[in-house]
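re: ur question from earlier - yeah i can do the single chain one, its not a big deal. heres the input i used so u can compare w yours
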Amino acid sequence: MPDKPSKLSIGQKLEARENECFHFLNELPLTRHYVLIGGYAVSSYQFPRYSVDLDFVLPLGELSFFRDFAKKLGFKHESEHNVEQIYDGRSVVYGKQVGVRVGLDLLVNSVHSRQTKFAYPFPYLFENSEVREIRGRGLEAKARARVASREMLLALKANSIRDQDMRDILALCFQEPLLADVVEHLEKCPREKIGENLERLDVYLSALDPQSFQGTFGTSEMVLKRSVVNCRKLLVEARRSLGLSSTKSLTELRGVFQKQEKRVREGIRELDLEHRKEARG
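and the output i got, formated as tokens:
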């Protein structure tokens, strides 16, 4: 009987996924009309991190090309559904197995937040994007692609505000963002929802375990402190400009978000364990 293929270690899985993502980015022509968001877009600003997938926003006219391109590179269609009606937004998902799943999410016409129910249309994202070099954790992992601007990414992250989004916000704030631009993007969103999300970010900063940030981005305590200071500036300016104020005391907020904070800490421990295993393997 032939030997069964050996399972990849955690480190090998992370490397295999990253290599596949950068192969896709390097093969993708810069002349195509798209904007990269998500983890790899964040990686173009100072600190690279691993991401489980590639997230592209594109107009309907580019969908046919991306379908053919994904198929050519070995990705298989997995799902497709409408996500919002204002811009006829659609989500098209592809995947590829390289010992671990590599995801490809195509967001057609807009990017929609389930948390705030708000969508930014593709033309607005394209207007707030630029071609940048993206670097991964591996020495050879690099590519050039059109990514959302730092301020646009901050607004997108403030709309979704999941645990990883808050870590990404911190990373993006290492270099002080253009606060007026972030506010301009957030002004378009439902105030109450954005206010709630900013409160959650406030709680996250107050309860931050340094390993959450340092484990994901491999940075120093000095970097973390600078990022927190700039993130606090962003919070203050966003609340002031949007006419928002914290509606609850910090004690009340901690109670409201106790479960979310617990998940953040569990995620920190899991990330730390993965990186320790990777270092040993």
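The radius of gyration is 19 Å. not sure if urs matches, ping me
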